[in-house]
Design brief:
single chain; 90 residues; mainly alpha
Amino acid sequence: MTGRQSFVGSAATIAETLDDFVQADASDGFILVPHVTPGGLGRFVDEVVPLLQERGVHRTAYAGTTLREHLGLAPAGSAAGATARSEAAS
């Protein structure tokens, strides 16, 4: 296996393979490269993502409206965020 694993097959096969990698702790995520994916990522989004959501391995909603909220981080400029930045700097 290389760092550039290719997944080929039906949507169900690809969803199963991606899930197997994650469940086996062989991966904690994947990078999809649209410029080398024939036809773009539309089919992946339309066909594979719903199957991953059914398996419970891909979120169906987001916790907030910002990346910081999705990651559970304090809002930028908040007292908690300032304290964390100050501690990281020391």
